[in-house]
Write a structure and sequence with these properties.
Rossmann fold, UDP-galactose 4-epimerase, domain 1, binds NADP nicotinamide-adenine-dinucleotide phosphate, 12 strands, 15% strand, globular, 321 residues, alpha/beta, 11 helices, two-stranded parallel ribbon, 2 domains
């Protein structure tokens, strides 16, 4: 039985992509006292609403997923909002949780916090060794500061936090919004639409040479649950697969699965973001016993089937499978 099962758990951002997977993971672990209010009920950028949320829900454990997120385009269009919203939500929630006597708070950070020049694979000890990739720096820096706040609160107040550095996530329930989507759903949508419209060519952002470490969302949710149960260190912990995949390889894998027969081109005038990125996962394995269960081909199949059945109906999903 999960040590969380008798606890009152507050999940911020529970209505989002990762939130859906975390709520399912907590349900599977037998947790019943889970609250996941929406932004319309409590706007976490407002201090009085954060305090009201803590007073109303009186959680033992807080899992903080709420954030302003998106792909490179969304980050470049909203650098100020991404910095402000992520910083203010996290900083107010950490302060209010500490004051409300919360036993533990889990932060979900991002590999966008890593310095652009950090050696590969990315190791937690290099988090502060330089400035992040500029295209996503405001988002990455805000999340980095929250980890510093968590460590400082542990030192001064003995407040227990766990800080995860999540790699690029993908999976069912992701956002496929044309302006805000991350790379995997953005590509799935582009190839599916190009196939439906019989377009001879799909043009993708960047060189195709940028690399990422892609983790299926249910695996990430399990890592979040494990961290809430047992991670007890101020040090951040990478959560990823340790596998490096280029965006060109990803594009071809998705095009094949969607059944898109045309040409794939890269628009090198568009940014790659961080040039190469994959994680050293040794700390996560050691401290949480975490290993991913869903490999990229399987995860892509699940995500594409999910998307096609919603966008084009079950028949299209079966035809592509
Ligand atoms: N997706 C990834 O690839 C990835 C990678 C690394 C780290 N992460 C981290 O994982 C966490 C979850 O990301 P996600 O992809 O699941 O994001 P998401 O789908 O965009 O969900 C974000 C959630 O934040 C909530 N939210 C935003 N502004 C809010 C506000 N002012 N007050 C209250 N709630 C607010 C939204 O609530 P409503 O739905 O109620 O509006 C939404 O449910 C984030 O902390 C993100 O930084 C994600």
């Amino acid at each position: 039985m999960s040590p969380l099962s008798g606890k009152r758990i507050l999940v911020t951002g529970g209505g989002g992509f990762l939130g859906g997977h975390v709520l399912a993971e907590l349900r599977r672990a037998g947790c019943q006292g889970v609250g996941a209010p929406r932004q319309s009920e409590y706007d976490l950028t407002l201090q009085h609403e954060v305090r009201r949320l803590l007073a109303d829900s009186r959680p033992d454990v807080v899992i903080h997923l709420a954030a302003a997120v998106g792909g490179i385009g969304a980050n470049q269009a909203n650098p100020g909002a991404f910095l402000y919203r992520n910083l203010i939500m996290g900083t107010e929630l950490i302060e209010a949780s500490m004051r409300a006597g919360v036993e533990k708070l889990v932060l979900t950070g991002t590999t966008c916090s890593y310095p652009r020049s950090a050696p590969l694979p990315l190791r937690e000890d290099d988090l502060w060794s330089g400035f992040p990739e500029p295209a996503t720096a405001p988002y990455g820096l805000a999340k980095r500061v929250l980890m510093a706040q968590a460590a400082a609160y542990r030192e001064q107040y003995g407040f227990r936090t766990a800080s995860l550095l999540l790699t690029n996530l993908y999976g069912t329930g992701d956002s496929f919004h044309p302006q805000n989507a991350h790379v995997v759903p953005a590509m799935i949508r582009k190839f599916a639409e190009a196939k439906a419209a019989h377009r001879p060519c799909v043009t993708l952002w960047g060189t195709g040479r940028a690399t990422r470490d892609f983790l299926y969302a249910s695996d990430a949710a399990r890592a979040v649950r494990l961290a809430a149960e047992s991670l007890d260190t101020p040090d951040p912990v990478n959560v990823g697969t340790g596998v490096e995949t280029s965006t060109a390889a990803l594009a071809h894998a998705i095009a094949e699965r969607v059944g898109y027969p045309g040409e794939v081109r890269f628009d090198t005038d568009r940014p790659d973001g961080h040039p190469r990125r994959y994680l050293d996962t040794a700390r996560c394995t050691e401290l949480l016993g975490f290993e991913p269960r869903v490999a990229l081909p399987d995860g892509l199949d699940r995500t594409i089937t999910w998307y096609l059945s919603r966008a084009y109906g079950r028949h299209a999903a079966r035809a592509a499978a």
